């Protein structure tokens, strides 16, 4: 497994860990523009998840292109 694939995996797993760890955000304070923490934290993760998924997709494309051309991907040798 190359380092680039590890980063891809972390990008895709991070939102799941953040949302499954309910105890970290099951509270009302601090509020943001009148919205309890519980709600704005989840909505923030929608944006973060989108960005992380986009990063993972771009890294995957880069990795696949590198494998097709036979060049090692940045950050690791070809398998």
Automatic annotation (TrEMBL):
Transmembrane region positions?
A: 7-26, 38-60
Enumerate the InterPro entries for this protein: DUF3311
Q: Which UniProt keywords apply?
A: Membrane, Transmembrane, Transmembrane helix
Tell me which Pfam families the record gives. Answer: DUF3311
**PANTHER family attached to this UniProt entry:** BSL5891 PROTEIN
Protein name according to UniProt: DUF3311 domain-containing protein
């Amino acid at each position: 497994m190359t380092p680039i694939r590890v980063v891809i995996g972390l990008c895709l797993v991070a939102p799941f860990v953040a949302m499954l760890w309910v105890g970290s955000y099951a509270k009302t304070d601090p509020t943001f523009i009148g919205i309890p923490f519980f709600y704005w934290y989840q909505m923030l993760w929608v944006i973060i998840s989108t960005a992380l998924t986009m990063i993972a997709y771009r890294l995957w494309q880069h990795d696949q292109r590198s494998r097709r051309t036979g060049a090692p991907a940045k950050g690791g040798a070809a398998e």
